Amino acid sequence: MAIAHAMTRILHILDHSLPLHSGYTFRTRAILKAQQALGLDVRGITGLRHGEQGASPEVVDALTFHRTPGKAQGPAGLKEWREIGALADAIMALAQDWRPDILHAHSPALDGLAAVRAGKTLGIPVVYEIRAFWEDAAVGNLATHEGSIKYRLTRQLENMAVSCADAVMTICKGLKDDLVARGVSPAKIGIMPNGVDLTMFGTPAPRDAALAQELGMGDGPVIGFIGSFYDYEGLDDLIAAMPLLLERHGDARLLLVGGGPMAEALEAHAKASPAAHAIRFTGRVPHGEVERYYALTDVMAYPRKCSRLTDLVTPLKPLEAMAQMKLVAASNVGGHRELVTHADTGMLFPPDDAAACAASLADLLDRRDDWDAMRQRGKTHVRDNHDWHRNAQRYLSVYQRLLGGASNTPDSVAA
């Protein structure tokens, strides 16, 4: 079977999907759109955590998503096992009619284990793609702590999914290296880096003077963050950096767009800051309006704290910022080092250090003559290394091995 033939069917097994908006759903959309452009027939199916019991199938942005009916109940452990069973049953029911050639599951591990269960019953090969380790994400969201029983059990589920899948993909080198350290053969693991659909980023939007006036942004440089307000994002350090930044650039402003678990604490922190007059919160804005807020910024800042999550996982936002010709300043954690080359495509500063963050931002604002060249290098880096339509071809060799009858042992799957 030719892998680029339209009849090659790939079923993506997902935690949640469009029409919900998140980094997870936008990555999924980009993957499915790029695979369609390569001639593959793709669909998605979501587990019980999608939450919305809408139509099934549901077509969003010309993409088809099936839903898993029902609701899992029970104590911790049993509830998750029931989720796996419900999703596996839904996959098998769909396969009776649509008959996929590959089951491509995306983290968390519940999706991978459901795909493995269904794949073994149906005789269909399984690819398991890890976007982050679920146990580390829970630590980052302050839902548990490293080494807890919950942490260790979740890690074991991840190991089971990796062990049972026919091929594994990760979004970055950090995650692959961690799996190899656990004893997984590197030949079993491929990398599909985070990317940007460059067809969605044309000429950057012009600055909206009315919006700038409404927000009181002034005429000075604007530091921005657009995303979810989680503790690991380090936005408290960015707020703490503002009084120091104002000592060198008194007309600078900080624009924080979004919301999340830390929103209330961050707003209180900003209100108590001597730089309170220079910090603006907008709350969440509709996805279609985000470009207007990007257009107000000069530098996008990503001050992530140092942790296993941020060292191992590459975020999407810095790539989107570079694609939109924005300067990027980011903390020097492993996930950022895979995306940003210091003083070339952006600036890196020590994590968990407000003074270092302020100094880096001030130095970048001092180098206005270098801005155009740095912006161009950033966009070129994204185009050459993180274009979804180019990188999606990496899946093809993995699919071809699995469909071509090659042994599904770790050493036979493309790295």
UniProtKB/TrEMBL annotation:
Segments forming domain Glycosyltransferase subfamily 4-like N-terminal: 23-195
Protein's UniProt keywords contain Amino-acid biosynthesis: no
Signal peptide: none
InterPro entries with a match to the protein in the record: Glyco_trans_4-like_N (IPR028098), Glycosyltransferase_grp1 (IPR050194), PEP-CTERM/XrtA_GlycosylTrfase (IPR024004)
Pfam families linked: Glyco_trans_1_4, Glyco_trans_4_4
Keywords recorded for this protein, A-Z: Transferase
Any GO MF annotation of the entry: glycosyltransferase activity
NCBIfam families linked to this entry: stp3 (TIGR04063)
Name this protein carries in UniProt: Glycosyl transferase family 1
Source organism per UniProt: Aurantiacibacter atlanticus
